[in-house]
Amino acid sequence: MSRAQRKMDHINYALTTGQGAGTMFEDIRFVHQALPGLGVGDIDLRPKTGDLNLKSPVFINAMTGGGGDQTEKLNGMLARAAKETGMAMAVGSQMSAIKDPSERASFKVVRKENPDGIIFSNLGSEASLEQAKEAVEIIEADALQIHLNVVQELTMPEGDRDFKGALERIQHISESLHVPVIVKETGFGISYETAMKLAGTKVAAIDVSGYGGTNFAKIENERRAKKLDYFQDWGIPTAAAIIEVKKAFDGTVLASGGIKNAQDIIKSFLLGADAAGLAGSFLKLAVDEGESKLIESVFELHEDLAMMMTALGASTIRGIQDCPAIITGNLANYLLARGFD
Ligand code: FNR
């Protein structure tokens, strides 16, 4: 099977296997404040993300590139939406473009459409420093995402089987690259223990990319005869993953994995995330409803966040962390079982 076909399979199966349930955001409820003491005009939606410099608290997470005309068209659409709305955007893994320069157009379109925007490069943890530099250069990226996707690789018939040396490579790249490094999962979540390892590197941000949204075990199982069923319900629910990472890591924390709406986003900010990434939800909007609806939906997300922040009395994204809220159900049990208070 060609690489281009695999990329298109991922997109199609991501759309049809759908957004799962199980982020555990549903177990969080804010305590209403009848005297919030501010107005909608007081709300500042600019996140504090250090060197990442995000303008919007929402970003388009890594999806595609390198798969020919269709991915070029999709990346162009996403890049224009990012430009219109001030969102940062990550491209999909650039390893194919590093190995084969004819695959570069579908990545370069992202910079062409959005010359001044914040754009993230993307590579797996098998990448070397030289490859990281090249990926950044191809799209003049502002940061590099390094993805961890052990379960996806294991479920892919043609995937990697050896994951040694990843932390050392991440450490080396984070120390030597001229742009900040973000380490992300791809829908199975980052634990406290993994975040502790990353805390010992120069990584600027961790994107928890937890369980409850796009499920690459399901996607890869669609593509193979012998299904690895045991990976389909594997992973750390996104709400729990944010708490896991916040306990270990002082840098910027990004929330992703199954984020569908402004309620999920604001709950991720309550738990300490600084910005939220959407992949599957934006893909579905872009493919099913088109570019202008995608742009409109992002402006609506901004508006919805401002409305809820007003009701909560939080004028900034960081201020949401101080809002009273209760955690019940599965998330409360998870935290108890994990010994987290
Ligand atoms: C992805 N994702 C991804 N991540 C990554 O770091 N590099 C990649 O190349 C890809 N490719 C990719 C393709 C498609 C079609 C989808 C839907 C997703 C993973 C993505 O960035 C994110 O971590 C997960 O999808 C979880 O977020 P959502 O989709 O639940 O919002």
Note down, in words, how this protein is organized.
This protein has helices at 3-17, 69-85, 95-99, 105-113, 129-139, 150-155, 166-176, 192-199, 216-222, 238-248, 262-270, 280-289, 291-312, 329-338, and strands spanning 28-30, 58-60, 88-90, 119-124, 143-147, 181-184, 205-207, 252-256, 275-278, 325-327. The strands form two sheets. The chain has an eight-stranded parallel barrel, surrounded by seven helices. By secondary structure, it is of the alpha/beta class. Strand 6 (181-184), helix 8 (192-199) and strand 7 form a beta-alpha-beta unit. The protein is globular and about 60 Å long. It contains 14 helices and ten strands. It binds ligand FNR. Ligand FNR binds at residues 10-11, 14, 61-64, 92-93, 122, 145, 147, 184, 186-187, 209, 213-214, 256-259, 278-281, 283.
Write the layout of secondary structure elements.
Layout: H1 3-17, E1 28-30, E2 58-60, H2 69-85, E3 88-90, H3 95-99, H4 105-113, E4 119-124, H5 129-139, E5 143-147, H6 150-155, H7 166-176, E6 181-184, H8 192-199, E7 205-207, H9 216-222, H10 238-248, E8 252-256, H11 262-270, E9 275-278, H12 280-289, H13 291-312, E10 325-327, H14 329-338
Parallel strand pairs: 2-3, 2-9, 3-4, 4-5, 5-6, 6-7, 7-8, 8-9
Antiparallel strand pairs: 1-10
The structure holds ligand FNR.
The site of ligand FNR has 27 residues, from α1, β5 and α12.
Side-by-side strand order of the widest sheet: 2-3-4-5-6-7-8-9
Q: What would the principal axes of the Cα set say about the shape?
A: globular
Taking pLDDT < 50 over at least 5 consecutive residues as the criterion, the unreliable ranges are none
Would you list the SSEs in sequence order as H and E?
HEEHEHHEHEHHEHEHHEHEHHEH
Return Rg in Å. Answer: 19 Å
Oligomer designation: single chain
Structural class of the helix and strand makeup?
A: alpha/beta
* Total of DSSP H or I helical runs spanning 4+ residues: 14
